């Protein structure tokens, strides 16, 4: 086992560590409090540096904090993204008006632009390279350090997530040049080792978030684009260039696993690089590829750091030691047929389960819907916690999930709550036929789109004795009108509600609310801007008015996912467990 050394302490948010090219410094982002002009400053994220020995020191003095950074290839400087502050005159005027309570907020007002700055490691001097726009969110250097490639969607609005393009910036002059201007997003650009080519992530279909991602390349000078992974019918995640630019290594999201593959640029052939049933991530390797380090996670273990040399893997961490005093339920992938599709899901049986024993079943539904359950230990929906309280768990990946073919990922377009609902219910039937689930003791839980499916299921079926709806969609009209991503409904239905009202009504649980007989626990974060809390308020109001069994719990300071504060996460599980125990086990 390797020796572990803790570098940061306290309650600060310390993240995004990156070593300098020569390994002498470790840069990271931190919102630690510091002193500036003899006054304390808190909550402002800056770049900090750790030397090989000694204490961390703050590197930047960005008035609006640092959002993102990258080391220059020579290791002598760092480029970073920061928001342009208001002029002193405008800041003074704003403070004056706020003091007088003239503080009305103009919705839709353009944001301040983002800027790219360069800071020197030796003396901490910083200079602005260019003012870009509010959408700037990523940058990377060319191998010679003379050019920066960056991405922006111009507005910085989440709803414009499908509009990212790649630009090139001359570090010396600040001159900008647009490289891509295609429909759909182009993101995560990376220069080839010789600097002549840029690889980036593209989509098979523009303007929808549930299209498959691919690796494409374009000459640095501009020109024809090549999609390198068109034959790989799974979503592509992170990637990097292989030695001498002859290959590209990429992570493929393959069913319930995540593996690494190598693309030979000469032949176009794709081979497995790091494969198997595990969920792999964060691959790094030496230039000759002989030594590799990556994270590997299994259903019964936390992510562990694996060092690979020759033909052997060495586990150099032991984070799973924390699990030694816990009992885990057996976890596996199961498959069933639904129409023309073969559907997969994760099945967990309770701790101490005996074959042939029928037990209560909890069906958990993921968000997206272009998301997926992976066959690993860490799960948002607490698989092993349910298993430790006598429940079996079914976590299906119905049509519309990621990790499968491009056609599968788009199969619920214009059909939300249709085919995916049938896939889920057939999965439930399969677990009953296996002799595991007790059909009279079943519950359903989901968040975001999983919350939508939970809401939809209980308007269509009385099979579940209890439901937990978390930050879900109740009315597609309400969701479109309040979400920071109203384009979501347009992506799936191809029209706005005033253009096709019947479709929005047909697929909204709100218009079938009178059918609900299942006791429902509704959980939502007060600051959720994605699936706005109005969805859950509307659901509670309707069920309460109808005299149904319902409880509505709101979490302050929480956004989408209710995942900010640990005690809130604990409370979510306790409430969900008590709800299921009360209405399923009684």
Summary, kept brief:
The chain is an alpha+beta fold and 586 residues long. The protein is built from ten helices and 34 strands. 40% of the residues are buried.
What CATH architecture of the domain at 326-585 would you give? 3-Layer(aba) Sandwich
Number of helices: 10
Low-pLDDT regions: none
> Strands of the biggest beta sheet: in what spatial order?
27-28-30-29-31-32-33-34
How many strands? 34
Helix content: 10-25%
Radius of gyration, in angstroms, nearest whole number:
25 Å
- State the assembly state of the protein chains: single chain
Please name the CATH topology of the domain at 326-585: Rossmann fold
Q: What is the CATH superfamily classification of the domain at 326-585?
A: Alpha/Beta hydrolase fold, catalytic domain
Shape descriptor reads globular
Secondary structure class reads: alpha+beta
Q: Please report the first level of CATH classification, the CATH class of the domain at 326-585.
A: Alpha Beta
**What's the end-to-end separation, in Å?**
48 Å
């Amino acid at each position: 086992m390797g020796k572990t050394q803790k570098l940061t302490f306290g309650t600060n948010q310390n993240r995004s560590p990156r070593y300098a090219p020569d390994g002498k410094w470790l840069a990271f982002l931190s919102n630690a409090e510091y002193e500036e002009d003899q006054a304390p400053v808190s909550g402002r994220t800056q770049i900090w540096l750790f030397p090989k020995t000694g204490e961390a020191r703050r590197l930047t003095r960005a008035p609006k904090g640092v959002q993102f950074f990258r080391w220059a290839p020579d290791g002598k400087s760092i480029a970073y993204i920061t928001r342009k502050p208001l002029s002193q005159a405008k800041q003074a005027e704003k403070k004056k008006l706020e003091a007088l309570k003239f503080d009305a907020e103009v919705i839709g007002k353009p944001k301040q632009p983002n800027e790219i700055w360069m800071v020197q490691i030796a003396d901490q001097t910083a200079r602005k390279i260019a003012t870009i726009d509010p959408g700037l969110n990523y940058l990377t250097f060319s191998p010679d350090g003379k050019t920066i490639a960056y991405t922006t969607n111009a507005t910085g609005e989440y709803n414009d997530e499908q509009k990212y393009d790649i630009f090139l910036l001359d570090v010396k002059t600040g001159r900008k040049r647009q490289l891509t201007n295609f429909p759909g997003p182009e993101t995560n650009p990376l220069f080839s080792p010789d600097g002549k080519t840029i690889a980036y992530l593209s989509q098979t279909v523009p303007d929808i978030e549930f299209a498959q991602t691919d690796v494409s390349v374009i000459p640095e000078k501009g020109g024809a684009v090549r999609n390198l992974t068109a034959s790989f019918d799974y979503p592509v995640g992170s990637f990097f260039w292989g030695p001498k630019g002859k290959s590209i290594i990429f992570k493929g999201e393959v069913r319930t696993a995540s593996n690494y593959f190598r693309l030979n640029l000469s032949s176009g052939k794709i081979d497995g690089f790091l494969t198997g049933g595990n969920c792999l991530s964060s691959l790094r390797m030496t230039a000759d590829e002989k030594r590799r380090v990556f994270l590997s996670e299994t259903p019964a273990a936390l992510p562990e750091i694996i060092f690979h040399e020759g033909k052997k893997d060495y586990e150099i961490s032991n984070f799973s030691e924390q699990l030694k005093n816990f009992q885990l339920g057996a976890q596996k992938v199961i498959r069933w047929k639904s129409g023309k599709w073969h559907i997969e899901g994760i099945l967990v049986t309770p701790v101490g389960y005996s074959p042939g024993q029928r037990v209560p079943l909890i069906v958990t539904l993921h968000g997206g819907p272009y998301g997926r359950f992976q066959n690993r230990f860490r799960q948002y929906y607490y698989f092993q916690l349910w298993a430790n309280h006598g429940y079996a768990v079914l976590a299906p990946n119905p049509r519309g999930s990621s990790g499968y073919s491009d056609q599968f990922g788009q199969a619920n377009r214009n059909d939300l709550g249709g085919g995916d609902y049938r896939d889920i219910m057939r999965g439930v039937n399969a677990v009953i036929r296996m002799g595991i689930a007790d059909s009279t003791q079943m519950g359903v839980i989901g968040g975001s789109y999983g919350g939508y499916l939970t809401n939809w299921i209980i308007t269509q079926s009385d099979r579940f004795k209890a439901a937990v709806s978390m930050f879900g969609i109740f009315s597609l009209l309400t969701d479109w009108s309040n979400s920071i991503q109203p384009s979501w409904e347009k992506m799936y239905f191809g029209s706005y509600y005033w253009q096709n009202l019947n479709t929005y009504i047909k697929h909204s649980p709100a218009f079938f609310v009178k059918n609900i007989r299942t006791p429902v626990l509704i959980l939502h974060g007060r600051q959720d801007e994605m699936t706005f809390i109005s969805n859950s308020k509307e659901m509670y109001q309707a069920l309460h008015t109808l005299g149904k069994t319902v409880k509505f719990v709101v979490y302050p300071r929480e956004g989408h996912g209710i995942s900010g504060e640990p005690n809130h996460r604990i409370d979510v599980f306790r409430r969900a467990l008590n709800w299921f125990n009360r209405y399923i086990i009684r």
